Amino acid sequence: MQLGLIGLGKMGGNMRERVRRAGHEVVGYDRNPEVADVASLAELVEKLSAPRVVWVMVPAGDPTRETVEQLGELLSPGDVVVDGGNSKFTDDKLHADHLAPKGIGYVDCGVSGGIWGLQNGYALMVGGSDEDVAKVQPVFDALKPEGEFGFIHAGGVGAGHYTKMVHNGIEYGIMQAYAEGYELLSKSEIVDDVPGTIKSWRKGTVIQSWLLDLLDRALDEDPTLAKIAAYSADSGEGRWTVDEAVRLAVPLPAISASLFARFASRQDDSPTMKAVAALRKQFGGHAVKAE
């Protein structure tokens, strides 16, 4: 089948290649003309035969919203727009409602796989109607890993990005646990080989995972992580997961703590911990460290 793909960055470019390797035709557009197949969204739409499937792989928020609105003016009834970026699930209904009066379908797809997806395949979490998902299914089959796992039609519009949001919240918690274990090992007086310990856990243990493999890879490159600053950004999904936990009164202590730990990483000198130190001195006479 044919696919229009908008956004050919690290993930989008690899996704174009994986779909092409599966025998499908991909017409790609990017603001960078060096990687684009066409010069404009209008030209991309012109090169596709109806019913068209156009996959949007651009940053969440205004860039995605503007792209969907432009496609609404270019596409025809029966076409489908797929948002494969990290949009918030509440945006999906807005996008679908914008396209529906024009007869254009909308599918949201949470994509996991990062820079390794070209080789390993991408885990896909999809929301939308059965009819619209069926139009995109050959592309989903090309992108997903081989075998029975790695794809779910999770529900109606918004379910794909909601599922991906929870996936990323879990990812926050797992990464935090590995990182805390790494720090404890590195501070121990009796463990001599911290990188080797992490490596030994990769097989035969209940905590083996791809994330653990990647931590081992990072330690192979920099055994003490000396070249990496102790600063960790968050791209939004962790916050949205915690917001949903509050809305639904679901306790998420591990995921919430991992999100707040990222906030703490951005403080060179934490006012909170200054207050804690001051209180300890006031009530217990505990020593404080001078600035």
From TrEMBL:
Q: Which GO terms describe its biological process?
A: D-gluconate metabolic process; pentose-phosphate shunt
SMART domains, per the entry: 6PGD
Q: Which GO terms describe its molecular function?
A: NADP binding; phosphogluconate dehydrogenase (decarboxylating) activity
Specify the 6-phosphogluconate dehydrogenase C-terminal domain's residue ranges.
160-287
What the entry lists under InterPro entries is as follows:
6-PGluconate_DH-like_C_sf (IPR008927), 6DGDH_YqeC (IPR004849), 6PGD_dom2 (IPR013328), 6PGDH_C (IPR006114), 6PGDH_NADP-bd (IPR006115), HIBADH-related (IPR015815), NAD(P)-bd_dom_sf (IPR036291), Pgluconate_DH (IPR006183)
User: Which Pfam families did the record assign?
Assistant: 6PGD, NAD_binding_2
Q: What's in the keyword line of the UniProt record?
A: Gluconate utilization, Oxidoreductase
Q: Which Gene3D superfamilies match?
A: N-(1-d-carboxylethyl)-l-norvaline Dehydrogenase, domain 2, NAD(P)-binding Rossmann-like Domain
Which residues of this protein are catalytic?
A: 164
Task: Check the record and name the PANTHER family matching this protein.
Answer: 6-PHOSPHOGLUCONATE DEHYDROGENASE (PTHR11811)
Name the protein family: Belongs to the HIBADH-related family.
Protein name in the entry: 6-phosphogluconate dehydrogenase
Q: State the organism of origin.
A: Actinocatenispora rupis
